[in-house]
């Protein structure tokens, strides 16, 4: 709707985790490098953790692109609410391993045989589990046991568990201490600073085809950071609707007022968005607060279902 108006080839702020739009902050680059290194050197168990909306799935998609280019065998499990029998069904299906038996022992033997064949062929097999904080203790224990599939020198299966900070808390529990001890690398994502938010918005606009003309004023980008708390998913939410409203109002540049109106529409003004003076970082307690999580969840839910900012802008017309 607004793409031709702003000279864009595509929507720069889609909520889909498109790996082309991964913005490499220092921390994201370190996480991606850590994941690549851990898989290449067959470290076995790696975790990727970060707050809701900080780019974990986009990072995983970039990792999957890299792995496929190297012809690495991958299994990506995005439905983490499963039991142990589902786990083996999903893994075999993702790796395209045929097993007529539904018994766990037979499936495990098939998987082990297949992994040995891949290893002898010089190939790497990687299992990635998204939203891993939702995994039950029995499933996590089964995943731990998969690291026993090994040669005398190397792990046959590389495992990445990606999830919210609750995953880290779960791994601290005594009943999961054996799993925790096997984690060789811990990678993390984090919210953007104000400067990174400016660069993030500019980079996504560049990838979408802008030729350099100003679309967001610096003050508007400051306002986006203030209400998003630097969380990329919320930055996308605010910027997407800011472009729509600016187009409907037939303005050329997104202003702070337009961003503020959208933030109020999504109730992002109901929490304190401004960090203490002189602080470039926001206290982690803000991200963990019940109010923030509830407001963010409700806002994103409404965003997926409808576009109230469009209706609001049209009413102003």
Question: Which terms would index this structure?
Answer:
five-stranded parallel sheet, 9% strand, disordered C terminus, 2 domains, 5 strands, 317 residues, Rossmann fold, 52% helix, alpha/beta
Principal-axis shape equals elongated
Give a short account of the largest sheet. Answer: 5 strands, parallel
Q: Measure the end-to-end span.
A: 16 Å
> What is the top-level CATH class of the largest domain?
Alpha Beta
CATH homology superfamily of the largest domain: P-loop containing nucleotide triphosphate hydrolases
Mean pLDDT: 87
- The helix/strand class is alpha/beta
Count the strands? 5
The order of strands across the largest sheet is 2-3-4-1-5
Helix content: 40-55%
What is Rg?
22 Å
Order of helices and strands: HHEHEHHEHEHHEHHHHHHH
Our count of helices gives 15
CATH-defined architecture of the largest domain:
3-Layer(aba) Sandwich
How many separate domains make up the residues?
Answer: 2
Beta percentage is 5-15%
- CATH fold group of the largest domain: Rossmann fold
Low-confidence runs of at least 5 consecutive residues: 273-294, 299-317
Characterise this structure.
It is a single chain. The chain has 317 residues and is an alpha/beta fold. It has 2 domains: 3-13 and 192-316, no CATH class; 26-188, P-loop containing nucleotide triphosphate hydrolases (Rossmann fold). The chain has 15 helices and 5 strands. It has helices at 3-6, 26-40, 56-69, 84-94, 104-120, 137-146, 165-171, 177-182, 194-207, 218-228, 232-248, 256-265, 284-288, 290-305, 308-316, and strands at 45-49, 73-77, 125-129, 157-163, 183-188. The chain has a 5-stranded parallel sheet with strand order 2-3-4-1-5, with helices on both faces. Helix 10 packs across helix 11. The longest helix has 17 residues, at 104-120. It is elongated and about 65 Å long.
């Amino acid at each position: 709707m607004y793409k031709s108006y702003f000279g864009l080839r595509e929507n720069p702020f889609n909520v889909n985790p498109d790996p082309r739009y991964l913005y490499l902050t220092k921390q994201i680059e370190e996480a991606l490098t850590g994941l690549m290194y851990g898989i290449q050197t067959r470290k076995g168990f790696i975790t990727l953790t970060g707050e809701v909306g900080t780019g974990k799935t986009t990072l995983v998609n970039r990792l999957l692109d890299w792995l496929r280019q190297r012809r690495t065998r991958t299994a990506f499990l995005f439905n983490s609410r499963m039991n142990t029998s589902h786990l083996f069904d999903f893994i075999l299906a993702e790796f395209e391993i045929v097993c007529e038996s539904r018994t766990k022992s037979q499936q495990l033997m098939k998987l082990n045989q297949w992994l040995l064949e891949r290893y002898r062929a010089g190939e790497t097999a990687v299992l990635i589990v998204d939203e891993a904080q939702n995994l039950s203790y029995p499933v996590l224990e089964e995943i731990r046991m998969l690291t026993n599939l090994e040669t005398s020198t190397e792990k046959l299966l590389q495992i990445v568990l990606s999830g919210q900070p609750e995953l880290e808390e779960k791994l601290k529990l005594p009943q999961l201490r054996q799993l925790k001890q096997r984690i060789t690398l811990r990678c993390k994502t984090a919210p953007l600073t104000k400067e990174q938010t400016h660069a993030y918005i500019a980079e996504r606009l560049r990838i979408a085809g802008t030729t350099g003309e100003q679309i967001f004023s610096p003050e508007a980008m400051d306002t986006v950071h203030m209400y998003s708390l630097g969380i990329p998913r919320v930055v996308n939410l605010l910027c997407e609707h800011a472009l729509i409203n600016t187009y409907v109002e037939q303005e050329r540049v997104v202003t702070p007022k337009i961003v503020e109106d959208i933030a109020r529409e999504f109730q992002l003004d109901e929490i304190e968005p401004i960090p203490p003076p002189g602080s470039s970082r926001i206290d982690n307690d803000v991200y963990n607060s019940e109010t923030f999580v509830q407001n963010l969840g409700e806002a994103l839910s409404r965003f997926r279902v409808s576009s109230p900012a469009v209706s609001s802008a049209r009413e102003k017309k």
